[in-house]
Amino acid sequence: MDITPITRAAVSDEVFARLVDEILSGRLAPGDALPAERELAERFGVNRHAIREALKGVRQARLVHIAQGGKTRVLDWRENAGLEVLSTLASVGVVPPIRLLRDVTEMRRSVAADAARLCAERASDSQRAAIVELADDYPDGGYAADAAFWTAVIEGSGNLAYLLALNTLLAGMRGVGESVFGALGLDGELFDRRAHVELARRIADGDGDGAHRLTSELLGRVIVSLDALASEVSIEDATSGVPGN
Description:
The chain has 245 residues and is an all-alpha fold. It folds into two domains: 8-81, Orthogonal Bundle (Arc Repressor Mutant, subunit A); 85-240, Four Helix Bundle (Hemerythrin (Met), subunit A). It contains eleven helices and two strands, in the order αααββαααααααα. The longest helix is centred in the C-terminal third of the chain and has 32 residues, at 208-239.
């Protein structure tokens, strides 16, 4: 482990981030034992309370476990970690950001499309009215308005797991690259007010299949764009060493 002391005020969040970086980058491999709390405190230059809190977070993320004999050993994040490590995966470069964005948006489309279908079938009259109102008041773009709209749709679906997944996916998208969506021209869905109004109408009419199809089309646009962007990057990488390129 190549760890340098933390020079600013000691906080457990910073220690947590450093430990997660070591694990996701592979510098700490599955099965490796973490140093004892005292040693970690000395390496990071922080108190043991900060180390203890950081380790609690790493365990909750299912990146380490307490093995027989009391040692804290690294787990394989591919087999044990949850969606909460999405943004960290991108920040440490374990997974290319474009691929991660693509995977996140693909899952978001699947969850949202099924939630829209369920919402059309299950939502109460008040929930349908709220969704229609959010669509009618939908601005010309904006992540906050979009998040509010989809939160209402998923709440109307009655699926708690979908709601929690949406929260995690939105946090992951913000951490992975929300700021680059506009720069790369990937935020077209946010500006399509007409599609949101039409989706709200289908939900209000109880048209589950229609709501599913429209959601898949609307949220699939960014996936198509990311696929094209990933292909361009791959071509550039493949030709970067070819004479004349």
